[in-house]
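Sequence in, structure out. Go.
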Amino acid sequence: MTDTPPMKKRVFFYVQHLLGIGHIVRASRIAEAMQATGLDVTMVTGGKPVDGFPGPSLKHIALPPVIASTAGFSGLADIDGVSVDEAFLTQRRDRLLSAFRDCEPDVVVIEAFPFGRRQMRFELLPLLDAIKAAPRRPLLFSSVRDILQENRKAGRDAETVQLLEDHFDGVLVHGDPQFVRLEETFPLAERIAEKVHYTGLVAPEPPEPAKDRFDLIVSAGGGAVGAALIDAAIQAQALLQDPRSWCLITGPNLPQEDFDRLSRQTPAHVTLVRFRRDFPNLLMNASLSISQAGYNTVGDLLRAHCAAVLVPFASGGETEQTVRAEKLSALGFAEVVPEDGLNGDRLAAAIRNADRMTRRPSVAIAADGARQTAALIRDMLSSRG
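Output:
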């Protein structure tokens, strides 16, 4: 009689991206690392589909997608931009709870919540209740980036702490405390200190250079709010009369009318594309990157040791990218151009300054966050028995 191999521990990983693609990219990298250690991972996503994320090797449950209906993230809309109604939200909630019951996970990871994604409380609060009531309660973690949105409304930090104390076993902070600590953007961090685990940045493995070569890579993240950056880059290229090869990556979520307009404005010798999944590989050949200061983009830049001009997204009161960009500027890693007042002249001046940089040596920021997260979860499962 042969021994039956032990069942793999199951992970139920919820991620909701509303505007950009950074959340689903980071979550997918973590999920793949967990799967590589032998965990059985199911990703549950609720945003607009993103080509290549999650990867084909992962189990994937796609809820009816919602997106941010305003730049300030104050409302939800369906994939066509129509505000969702109560029936739509009820259907999503029920599908999420059904998926949780079917999975019977040993671990649940919820990305961003309760630090963010308050719009999703209609389904996440019932999920927390279902986890607490489960016959075999799974471990529950919040997965959060290193820098949080500031200027939160009064009382929200206390509400976040209460939810963490009542429901969560740990907070996975995907950053290096030598670069930025949670308390810098979350004033009540001391109250949850025993739950906090720093993992390092979730960056990709150092990639191979792409077959294509461009000297300057201009990227607008997910692209939903990136038209101004691409506009300014086209103007700057003309002002500089720059003979180098340029690639402009608009992002998959840029509205089609903006993409069509930019296509008409882009010179024939400049490449304009919507999306390059090999963006990290392209950076390995580039002498300069011009981008927003999103979490994943910065992780790619650090791996590539590429000089950078950062234009942090700051609309709707957003502060996270500005904090990250200013910290990197203080380390001498990047030139920073504020989003407010961005134009071709200002971007051209920043490019001139950045051209004086050489390819940067590694900035000493831990960037193995995906593997460290997987190891931490396995250790906590083992400790639990």
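Check: The longest helix spans residues 86-103. The mean pLDDT is 91.
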